[in-house]
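Morning F.,

Quick status update on the modeling queue. The single chain you submitted on Monday has been processed. Sequence for confirmation:
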Amino acid sequence: MVRVRFAPSPTGYLHLGNARTALFNYIYARHTGGKLILRIEDTDRERSKKEYEDLLIDDLKWLGIEWDEGPDIGGDYGPYRQSERTDIYNQYVEKLKESGHIYKCFCSPEELEEERKKALSEGRPPRYSGKCRNLTEDQIKKLESEGKPYVWRFRVPDGEFIIFEDVIKGTVEINVDEFGDFVIVRSDGSPVYNFVVVVDDALMKITDVIRGEDHLSNTPKQILIYRALGFEEPRFAHLPIILGEDRSKLSKRHGAVSVRAFRDDGYVSEAMFNGLSLLGWHPKGDNEVLSKEEIIREFDIKDIHNAPAVFDRAKLRWLNGVYIREKIDLDDLTERAVPFFEGFGYKADFDYYRKVMEAIRDSLETLMDIEQRAKPFFVDDFHYEEDAQQFLKDETGYRVVQLFYEKVKDMDEIKKEDFKRITKEIQKELGVKGKNLFMPIRVALTGVTSGVDMAVLVEVIGVERVKHRLQRALEYFG
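Structure tokens below.
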């Protein structure tokens, strides 16, 4: 059975790149009938925070990603937080000590920096020289007696090439001389990422490691550790990096890059799931608006492109609009919109919110658009925009509004049909039509020259508020 994992560090908000990694692991697990494991890599004691872990889990659930084992639900291969697995790591450090695969290195940070500078000045890639590799027992005891701190380094075999088949990149070949002996355990006794990730993946029986290509340089080191511990190596698939529209690596300078920021900006989870799935993968047909189930059914990991994926913000916004307008049930959409209505100070009951959403959803691309699109339904004492005032300063326009008010002032309710009937009557009585008929009414009721269907607006806000707005306009321009 396929077993994949998503292993984020809880040191900040969920970045789009990490979200895409989680998404592809999830889709692959579901497509193959396998399992997804969530593991929290919280060994960075200074930066890891429980609040970030909670936010991360919440964002993953919001995206529609479900896992089969994890810190919140347990499983057969826990614990699922690295901070709770220290005893396990220590056992495998001892195995590497016993097998002679690691050794003590007493080189100071200053010595290592000097080595690095020298290598760069000579045009060589910086790598550890192996200075402490062959220290004698007496030399080690002397250095320890002097209280000199040390790390444990992995003894990398000289001149070896690590070759592996990457599902996305094909055959990858890396000379170990490019990186040399690397640290396994820090001077404070804490194991490093490349070591603990191997132990975790092996013990959790991970069959496929799907991650960003920024981890590609870690893979040969990890393969050496797999072999030293006698673990079976998983298949590797390194996802292409995500670029901004300017073809530089996606970062904060490109605008919002966290899932949380897009949530706050009014994006819906289905559009985010769909949009992230298209970063490096494409369905076989031309249709790119696909449900989660359709994506899982069509997905083949071998179809992921090796070339960098370009994040198209405009395309995601368009996709989001499609889901808002066409794909989400009105009641469901209204529930999601309520926090936005309330955040903009638009207070009402659910039924009223629902009527407004029905009226404006076709004009929305994100739920943040509610602020402007819903304004006519909530704000009665609005400002008349400069370019709109001309329609009521005009004598004919003023008379249109005056006559409209005369026809509604004694009504107890107003429906769409009433609006259409009244405007037809005014057209006949005053001999006006088109813009000269409808624009004065729109300006009187909204203060602007474009927006929602007037017939819908009057029915939703009700006749008393219609009267109030008409009276207000007549007083203002009278």
